[in-house]
Amino acid sequence: MPRVKLALPAKTIFTTQIPVRVTDINYYGGHLGNDSLLSILHEARVQFLKKFGFTESNIDGVGIIMSDAVLVYKAEVFYGDVLTIEIGVDDLEAIGADITYRVLVGEKEAARAKTGIVFFDYGNRKIVQTPPAFKDLFGPPVESVKK
Fold first, then answer.
1. What's the CATH number for 14-138?
2. Which residues, listed in sequence order, are joined to residue 138 by a DSSP beta bridge?
């Protein structure tokens, strides 16, 4: 069976640390549950947005909605481990982007993930264009014109 491969952008924009709680542990496996990893990444994403003055419901006047998620596990994670989560932004497009995550325990990579987001007007219940403030911060750098 082919495995999912997930490349991460070279640039990390934000890093945070989140401890693994007992409620994050899969009762049968004794390690971090897959559903809990997604919740931890959600917390990391909220912290990331807050650093730049955003919330999930207000990025330059619009919200975000998750369109997809990919989780790739590299190592087990246990109760009491402190996760270092490195966040990047990739594939910025007209209506969305990928937020990427590299999850470390110490120096060891434990997981990689991405959540696809699209920008959403919750008042009108429709997808909207990527806000200029988000593009300005996380879009590709504009190359200078040589004269």
1. 3.10.129.10
2. none
